[in-house]
From TrEMBL:
Keywords: Cell membrane, Membrane, Transmembrane, Transmembrane helix. The lineage of its organism: Bacteria, Bacillati, Bacillota, Negativicutes, Selenomonadales. It comes from Megamonas hypermegale. InterPro entries: MFS (IPR011701), MFS_Efflux_Transporters (IPR050189), MFS_trans_sf (IPR036259). This is Arabinose efflux permease. The chain crosses the membrane at residues 12-32, 57-78, 85-102, 108-128, 140-164, 176-193, 220-238, 258-276, 288-307, 313-334, 346-375, 381-401.
Amino acid sequence: MNTLTNVKKSQGIMMFIILLLSYIVFASNWVAGSNLSEKIVYHYFNGEQVSPMVSEVINYTITIARIFANLVAAYILLKLNPRKASIVALVLLCFSFVAVFAKNYWLYTIARMIMALGGSMIMVYMNTVVARFIANDEKIIASALVTASYNIGAGLVAIIFFLYKDVVISDWQHTMYVFSLFSILLLVLWTMLAKDFSPNDENTHHQEEYKYKDALTDKFVYCFSMGFGGFLFLYVMSLVSIPVKLVAQVNNGFNAEFMILAITMGGIVGTLFSILIGKVPFERKPFLLVHGIMMIIAMALGLYMAYINPGLAYFLFAIGGFVMFSQYSVYLNFPHELPNMNPRKLTIMFGVFWALGYTIYTVLNFIWSIILSYYGWDLSMVFYIVCSCIYIIFVFTFPALKVQTKRAIS
């Protein structure tokens, strides 16, 4: 039975907000788990010393789960349509609650992997809602909110851990339990309020149907994904893997929570900046190149200054966060501005973008951990900065765009 309805734009925006909040909850859960990784590993291994690669295994599994999730997200959406597909994603997100009660580290890891499946699917489905309900001249603003979602989640965690550190680290299970409850609340809200709609654009039925095989033979898809992988390596590592390890290296009062807070707050300001310039016509490619170079320089200088002047390092990390996110929404909005775009095509493309992008990130993260374990911190940081330059290299391959100002696809 066809249960699709004519969904108003206001209802579409409401669904976008619920999915946006869901991704913020996912991000906060991921970052909180990373910040508590030492406590979690200590709990499951009874205080035994473990390799840095063991403590990183959660990050590996989450990113592997995200790769798989993004590949199947579009298929599930096209079969179930957005409402039911998003219910599946939100149920998977609620496995963060199950992870708290895991009896051993490996069951905990599996539950967190399932949580990551849901979080990644939500990101893909947000782009479907944006493509269907948001006008083209407003899409960059929606993309800015999507890109800010991880920063908002990470920033909330940084603030909570800074203000109530003794409380949140005293019992990691109670802390993760509270973060996980919000996933259940959002599942209930979505089930009650969301409406179903077709991801296919009624105005493009005469066009040849876009399929996975088309995405996998599209040069732009690979260039975009490679650049995205380089960006993710620079950004996610700066919030998840590097801060705590940097504190152990500098030993001068440098604070991991301040580093995370500086990057996320700078990122939020950068997102606001991208919203302000969102409707101003400008050449996308030069903007991305200049900001890409600036963010890598700022992060490299911040890592160097952490040894000399922590205050200046925080400032440079904030600049790095600002430059990252003043361009991130422009980057993620780039596919929306390509000619002959529609919700179905975007759903499939973004599934492949995120899957390949996180594949690149996961491989780089794994190599970084090996270098850190066997060759030391300094060489691992050289690898970190050099490989982040992948972003700049592949942005050079992007086509020049004439900014679209027409209304929404639908």
